[in-house]
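Q: I have 451 residues here and want to know how they pack in 3D. Can you give me a structure?
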Amino acid sequence: MKITKLTGLTLAISLALPGAAMAYSKGDVTKWLAANQAASVGFKDGESISFKDREKIKAFIPPGYEEVMNFEGMNVVVRDATNLSPSQQYKEATNQFQSKVSLAADGSLQGYVAGEPFDSSSLQVSDPESGLKAAWNFNYRWQRQGLSSDTVHWVWVRKGGSHENHELAKNEKYGHLFGGGGSFDRALWAEYKRVYFNHRADMPDQEYKLKGSMARDTEFREITSFYNPFDIAGTAFMVLRHLNPKKADDSWAYVPSTRRVRRISAEAKTDSLLGTDLTLEDFYGFSGRILDHDWEYVGTARILAVARSRNPNAVYTGPNGWALDDDWELRLTDVFIQKPKSSSHPYSAKYLFTDRQNHTSYYSAAFDQAGELWKVWQQSRTWSEDPQGAGRKNMPEQAAGLNVPIYQSIQVIDVQNDRGTLVSVQDTYYPVDKKSKIKRALDVNVLTEGR
């Protein structure tokens, strides 16, 4: 990595940005993007950035996250960008089908089978369709069958105070992961599974899809089941995403106190989930339906991201326990804006930063209806080809080039209310399950089995 100094122009722009996250507006994001474009890299691979050297990385921390990442005692290890391109199967599907893909008049995809729908290098700020193309690329990023996790911690964290006496911090297996400050209001334990049924680049011999009735008209199914503490145990949510992009999701919830499964309305997907700072639509950076939103492409940005964590699981630090103690790789990202079509949506706009090579999301920022920054998300990954990703159960293909970013954590900070939600995803893997196992795991009837 070439070592240079920040230019005077870049430094002046970056220093002019607001110091507090709450001060950010959409215009400030535009200013930051301009500063990011002009910035020269002032650090080298493997360098540890302390608080006194924080100006070296200022231009590469997206808006709203700087005060989380920069603190007295910080130790940010910066890394050069590495090759994180998807599997050979995904590349082969891209080469075979990408030239046949186009956008229909309503924004849906025509001619899509598998792989990357659109060439990322063709995205242009001047092209009004590029935002939608970036969104479809993100939606159909390489994930093989999908993510499974036996242990997901959802932790409510208030700014200030301590959590050293909380039962999760004292847990023998996971307690050491939750360092730093911040007070824990509540912690839930869950398991999670998502399975993709169609557009599977790893299944060319099956016409790129799973066989069977469950796969009919289905993009994916996912289930989140909470099993601790006792008062929440048995609560579960299931979502079915249809292949038809205009068709509303089928969603169900089971709450043990009611002893019945009920359908979730489409509006509920933008409500706070169990009192956290997340909604069902916020997972993975964005997990809603593409055609429910307008999309605008605003360019590229180089950001520091935990794309290849040195830790098997997220390790938290900082005065509020919201920051990560890890390696931060300089990644080239596509930046585009989600603009909800519904006037009742809580966000006026949400910026997404997705990896140019594999389209995974590292960072997003949502603005309220008044145009003020409301929430920021930072997401971390391990890499399947590294020791941290190898040896996980149901992932024997790791050595053969699975090449998938393994989901590790979500940190969502409500900057207007000084609180955050940590979603720490442990024991994660990207399996290839037998059809019978998938059916058992994702049948709606399984919702009632948690308690």
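Q: Anything worth noting?
A: The first strand starts at residue 48 and ends at 49. The CA atoms of residues 268 and 332 lie 34 Å apart.
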